[in-house]
User: Fold this.
Amino acid sequence: MTKEELVQMNEEGGAQQAPPAEAATDETSVDERPNRTAFSKRFSNRHSDIDFEDKEARYAAMNDDADLLGQYEQSGKALSKVFDKHKWLAALAMDMEKNPDDNPFDAMARLGIDVKTLLDDPEGGKKLAEILAKHNEDVAEQNEATEKVTANMRKSLERLMKLYPDDAQDMWSQIYEIHDKVESGDISDDIWKMLHNANNYDSDITSARDEAAMQARNEKIQNKVRSSSTEGIPPSLSSSGAGNKPIKKKDEPKSGFFEGLTY
Assistant:
């Protein structure tokens, strides 16, 4: 046996003993993917109503999570800038996080912030007074606006109940639906059509009345024309088969001895 034949025999024997590469890959893909398994569990805990094996649904949920994460990152960066500029505020926030039931002034005292000194300072006290006054003014305006809206809604509901008591509940719900859509900016075609029909209601009614009156006048004129055109024509000669009553012909005066005496 030559050396080349021996090498070929060894290669063939090794190929028979070695498992196919594809089979090994399949076994690995099923049994040795711990990251996928861990992620699928976390995904199921967060999105219990979504099938992890549904790729489109899974990608949609992951996109939503990415958007939410982006918002958190932006908020975190903005808050970090504030904390970097005011170190004491960051310490105060951390203390309040550990003691959420405490008064903020207690936390400030624990951090060594002398609130009394700040209030006794003329400039600082004046600035705080202005800020508090502005805050109280804003709160008062919000409360007044809320009370006004509540009173107006109560009056509107009373008027609606007087106008359409049977349909009041449905119409009130529709008003809320329209309000929500207008507030969100998503105004549907149905709302635009409803407004268009309402704006043109009076003109449409007027046009319909004018058209009906014109049609009535035309029919009246046509009836007069038919009456005058068939006057004196026997029914048998009328195109409609029914002419007007023939005009009675006056008797001609008779000639003779009594001519001129009786006529």
